[in-house]
Write a structure and sequence with these properties.
By secondary structure, this protein is α/β, with parallel strands linked by helices. It folds into three domains: 1-56, no CATH class; 78-335, 3-Layer(aba) Sandwich (Aspartate Aminotransferase, domain 2); 339-465, Aspartate Aminotransferase, domain 1 (Alpha-Beta Complex). The chain contains 17 helices and twelve strands. The chain has helices at 4-7, 43-55, 78-83, 86-89, 101-118, 130-148, 164-171, 189-195, 218-227, 260-263, 320-333, 337-355, 376-379, 385-393, 422-441, 443-447, 460-465, and strands at 122-124, 154-158, 175-179, 200-205, 231-236, 255-258, 278-280, 292-295, 300-303, 371-374, 401-402, 411-414. The protein has a seven-stranded mixed β-sheet with strand order 1-7-6-5-4-2-3, with helices on both faces. Strands 10-12-11 form a three-stranded antiparallel β-sheet, covered by helices on one side. Strand 11 and strand 12 (411-414) form a beta hairpin. The protein binds pyridoxal-5'-phosphate.
Amino acid sequence: MKTIFEKSNGSDGICLTDEKIEFPFLDKSFLRNGEIGLPKVGELEVMRHYKELSDRNFCIEKGFYPLGSCTMKYNPKVNEFLASLEGFCNLHPLSDDEDSQGALQLMYNLQNMLKVITGMDAVTLQPAAGAHGEFTGMKIIKKYFEVKGDNRTKVIIPDSAHGTNPASAKMCGFDIVEIKSNEKGQVDLDALKAVLDKDVAAIMMTNPNTLGIFEENVLEISKIMHENGSLLYYDGANFNAIMGYTNPKLMGFDVVHLNLHKTMSTPHGGGGPGAGPVCVTESLKEFLPTPVVEFDGEKYYKNYNLKHSIGAVKAFWGNFGVLVRAYAYILMMGKNLKNASENAVLNANYLKEKLKKYYDLPYDEPCMHEFVLSGEKQKQNGVSTLNIAKALMDENTHPPTVYFPLIVHEAIMIEPTESETKEKMDEFVDIMVKIANEAKVNPEKIILAPHTTPVKRVDETLAARHPDLNGKEL
Ligand SMILES: *Cc1c(COP(=O)(O)O)cnc(C)c1O
């Protein structure tokens, strides 16, 4: 397919005016002298070009999207309608509190709902994504110890953690101490005790962890950490694993972030938009970013007066559109939020049991919302996990997350999500079985996949290291 630049044929999409407009107030050095260099294509051609491009995208509306850890579930379309209501999307973020009572009320109510869901005592809606929530949470922990005059420098992170965890802690100036998982794929208590000292500010944990396994010793861990004067950070990006059944407060955590774009339904492929609210216990309330939304019995208002606030972490009040969708989703689901977790866990266990006959399952434990297979068996025939992922693309299925978590060789991390039917999952099982068989009898076919997509194998290393964003080097 040609790029829009290659399609440029000198025709004009629009014609504003031929008159030369003067800008006497602008310094000449700011004025362009030559052509702007935009492609010249008629309106209909532009439309066809972008429609064709968009048709090449894979999305949840097209097929199964079991991308582990990412919760690519169906996001009700009514949320889009609600987020685009004029009163929400045309409200200027600098409007006075009096003129934005509806938006503030929504934020206030959402804060309260997230308190109930996480068990925590106070919430900031500001962070724009999960990793941004982690960064905010770790800043809070850093400041908490600063205010205490207790200079703690280290953060413990299990080797099964999401890659953003060490990155966020490091960006806040902490040193990372990695601990190994045990044979059950869980935090090794002895390894934890061995690295614990008075320099440890916190542990960052995901529970269930990235293997989809619930940490059985979580209460013991929180006891050990608190006895050491350390705090516990909960990566709640995948809350569809536990929502309504348990919460981080009950497990003894002090800080948690949620990924509203995952659990509370905002379409989030391609890097956004997102919202990563951070919820904390009473003792960390004064450290939250400002403003937080409060209610004085009559009016909702933005409160900038938190004694130890780490300051703002985002322009304005966060990604408001995502907050509207999350609010609508929670109201719509009501008590059924619990069913979402139940189905997410049921679906994952169903797939795990069906697929473990055909693929290695290194940690054969009951899982939560996701599980991790290994492509080791197929590797013996020269078929790698990457090949399997590519072969799925020929079957109108988005590949699972691959080569993560790092502790599983040839990892295939599958999260079916709660929104899929049993029929859809049986279809996926058939596809995975077909690929496993093919890997034995006709490995070439899988190794050379995909065969049907518009773009075949791309050089991912080159794309990451040397991106050519405007296509000038094509
Ligand atoms: C998705 C995810 C993150 C990062 O969230 P972003 O919104 O992509 O920044 C962090 N931790 C876990 C466990 C995740 O699944």
